[in-house]
Sequence to fold (216 residues):
Amino acid sequence: MDGKHSIYLLLDETAFHPKGGGQPTDTGFIHGPNFRVTVKKAMLVSEVVVHWGKLVEGVAGEKTILGRLEWDSRYKYMKRHTAGHLFDHCLSVTTGIAVETVNSWLGDPCYVEYGGECPSIDEVKEAEVLTNQFISKGSEVVIKYISYKELFKKASNAPNIKRLRKLEKYRIVTIQGCGSIPCAGTHLKNINEMDGFFINEIKRYSSSFQIYYDVE
Ligand SMILES: [Zn+2]
Fold:
């Protein structure tokens, strides 16, 4: 921070998604009647989103402000993230094994990493075809909040279930026909907002494998 133009901004609430959970930071603008900040980064610090950027003009401090996300990149992350849920499900179907996600990245290049042995090329390709069939049919992405008790009834096969912290309530994301997953990420309203899903590369490791993919 150079003290002259850099600024850290905390708000009561925000639409900016901080870097985390495999999702790159949102960028954009925050402005009020008398100031304008270019947001370069949003960070989660002790459960609070801290916006970091450049004060382009004026003095920040107004009570009512407007935030504007760099939508093209955010929408791309939403598509890739939602497609990731679909592919998790489809890979579980074609391999017959509930997959376990251990890592992911929605920036470039986008990938998901699963624990365990890599399935055959045929199983991965079938999962790609199945993912595209879901996208062509379309389905609403439904969000609900449930308790810890309900979690294991409604999402016991979720690919991230082993990595969850104990919380009072969980945000559950359901795509019809693809099960439910506890997830605080950003999703499309309907999977038909995508035109297609394709796999670019598969990387095998001793106890995991990565699928590099993208969406249209
Ligand atoms: Zn999600």
The chain has a mean pLDDT of 90. The two ends are 38 Å apart (CA to CA).
